[in-house]
Amino acid sequence: MSLSQKTFFIKRLRKRNPDEFRFLSEKVVEFKKKRKRFDILDHTADIGLVIYGKDLKTLFENAGVGFFHLITDLKRVRQKEERRIELPGESLERLMVDWLNELLYLHEVENLLFKHFRVEKVGKNGLKAVAKGESFQEGTHVIHTGVKSVTYHQIQVRREGEGWRAQVILDL
Questions:
Q1: I need a labelling partner for 151 at 20 to 30 A (CA). Which of 23, 102, 141, 167 fits?
Q2: Residue 139 in contact with residue 32, Cβ under 8 Å?
Q3: 164 φ/ψ angles, rounded to the nearest 5 degrees
Q4: Distance between CA atoms of 72 and 68, rounded to whole angstroms?
Q5: Regarding the domain delimited by 36-171, which CATH topology (the fold level of the hierarchy) does it fall under?
Q6: Nearest to 113 by CA among 83, 149, 151
Q7: How would you classify the pairing of strands 112-123 and 126-135?
Q8: Per-residue pLDDT for 165 more than 90?
């Protein structure tokens, strides 16, 4: 695609769908900052995630991505189904554990794998989010890690610099 074709596409997108253009522009800026979404933390007999986000919504979205990255190959998961998730207000640490345990519950009980998360609201008043993915299919999906539960051991959710950081230990 030539530069003039790309310019035409961008201008047309900006004019026809300004909300999508703004969303994509924000994602490009975020990508350009090359901010990590998560790191895997080695822990005795368990595994942990250190999660990063520019704000609380992004932090919780990245926690979902990191969680399912441990469970399966996200490249093989399509966004065919969605689940709305609402959790009551708690401390941010409790909310992070509850969020990941709810995703684990949906994975275990409904056999779902998620790859995309949109957190609409998160804070002391609770969490509202949408998770998108599909049902596990033998031959298509591979389970890398079986997670038993999300623990409160060494849980952290805090502001760090210009963004947010969380740490969660998972029982395998």
A1: 141
A2: no
A3: -125, 155
A4: 6
A5: Archease, Possible Chaperone; Chain: A; domain 1 (3.55.10)
A6: 83
A7: antiparallel
A8: yes
